[in-house]
Amino acid sequence: MFCQTDRWRMSDAQVEEQTVSLVDVLEEDEELEEEASAVLAGSDSDHCSYPQGYVKRQAVYACHTCTPGGGEAAGVCLACSYKCHEGHDLYELYTKRNFRCDCGNRKFTEMQCKLFPDKEEVNCLNKYSHNFFGVYCTCSRPYPDPDDQVEDEMIQCVVCEDWLHGRHLGSMVPDCVELQEMICESCMNKNPFLWTYAAHLAVPGTGVQLKEETGADKLNTNKELKDDEVIEPSCKRSREEAEPNCRLKELQAIGQKRVQSGAVFWPSGWRSKLCSCNTCRERLTEAGVSFLSDESDTVLAYEKKGKNNEQTARGHDPLMSALDNLNRVQQLEIIHGYNDMKTELKDFLQRFAAEGKVVTPDDIRQFFEQQQSRKRQRVGSFFST
Fold first, then answer.
1. Is the pLDDT of residue 163 over 70?
2. Fewest C-beta atoms under 10 Å: which of 135, 141, 305, 355?
3. 3-state secondary structure of 138
């Protein structure tokens, strides 16, 4: 949902004045390509992911053509979006955790999966939301939204995995948000123990103030702890007495509280600071958020894996080592041709983004075939030798 801006643009005069080599240009663009492909490279584009079961995290799409609004929500994996739903009206849902591909099951009444047709009727453990019908945020609007003239970024909640507009979070969006995780206000309220952690671990300066616990608050906190003790079986209490102190209770005892409103942003590594005692682990499991204690569940970890996969698949590019052996004129010819192609490719891809369509391998192949045709028709060159 985040957009990356074109960080490299160079005029003819700058070509002569810049001391940056063409290798530097390509390396920077390679970095951008790695970031853009991280989401897809972490998923298999050739094989349906269904045999893998409920995949820890993968790119997921919803097909409006096959499962229109009013029907049952369904999601398909990356490979099925290419092979089974090419040309369909797809919603790109970024990534979802613990999801199993639905393609061709009972929810798709008029089609069969081309890659792995032998599927159960439904995937009972999949979780769905209004995202699967192409709407997001508390405002339930599409993305991109043709009627929304306000420039705003979309940020994903790490619990419900819905995407929310920055202006609808109820708190200020901090700098370097791409390095942080966000939990929306609704998910915070469903898991109230997270507010205690937020008072000590969350990113400061996001528009909410910390408050000292009053006498009444302390009484309420003590009452909550006593209530917890009342409902806990004796065997559970005995187990707690034998294990290390609960960090959550230690934080509650400090008496520092956060105003409980708005989305909360968390810095990198915050998950490792959650209490890992048996009681807290059981609390996370019962609330269905045990993944919060798993650092490898983060989108950043998934994207890092995707980048590594992409680099491994790409291997050594002989073009990069050959460029330094070209003379200045040849490098200038290549850099102009490269920039022209990049501009045309960007315009080509923006049309798909504006229409909310997924770019398929055939679309890319058609683009480069057109490039080759224009190259054959071109007479002369950019520079004379």
1. yes
2. 355
3. coil
Q: Quickly state the pLDDT bin for 20 (edges 50, 70, 90).
A: very low
Tokens of 261: 């409103």
Q: For residue 354, which phi and psi values (nearest 5 degrees)?
A: -65, -30
Backbone angles phi, psi at 133, to 5 degrees: -115, 15
pLDDT tens, residue by residue, 58-69:
999 999 999 987
According to DSSP, the residues that pair with 57 across neighbouring strands are 97
Query: Which tokens belong to 275?
Result: 């209490």
Helix (H) or strand (E) holding 183, with range, is strand 181-183
Rounded CA separation 109/116 (Å):
16
- The span from the first CA to the last CA of the chain, in angstroms, equals 45
Asked if residues 64 and 75 have their Cβ atoms less than 8 Å apart, the reply is no
d(CA 254, CA 218): 10
Q: Which pLDDT belongs to residue 154?
A: 93
Please, which residues bridge with residue 211 across strands?
257
Digit-coded pLDDT (tens) for 214-241: 555 444 444 444 444 434 445 555 554 5
Instruction: Collapse the DSSP code of 77 into the 3-class scheme (helix H, G, I; strand E, B; otherwise coil) and give the result.
Output: strand
149/269 Cα distance (integer angstroms): 36
Q: Which two tokens stand for residue 62?
A: 């919803």
The pLDDT tens digits of the residues spanning 273-329 come to 999 999 999 999 999 999 999 999 998 888 888 777 766 665 555 555 566 666 656
* Confidence (pLDDT) at 321: 56
At which residue do the structure tokens 């960007």 appear? 346
Distance, in Å, from the CA atom of 101 to the CA atom of 59, rounded to the nearest integer, reads: 10
For residue 19, pLDDT beyond 50: no
DSSP line for 245-283: PPHHHHHHHHTEEE---S-EEE-TTGGGGS--SHHHHHH
Give strand pairing partners of 157. Answer: 182
With a CB cutoff of 8 Å and minimum separation 6, the contacts of 142 are: 134, 135, 136, 356
Instruction: Mark out the alpha helices in the chain (DSSP H runs).
Output: 12-17, 22-41, 78-83, 185-190, 193-201, 215-231, 234-242, 247-254, 278-286, 299-314, 318-322, 328-355, 361-377
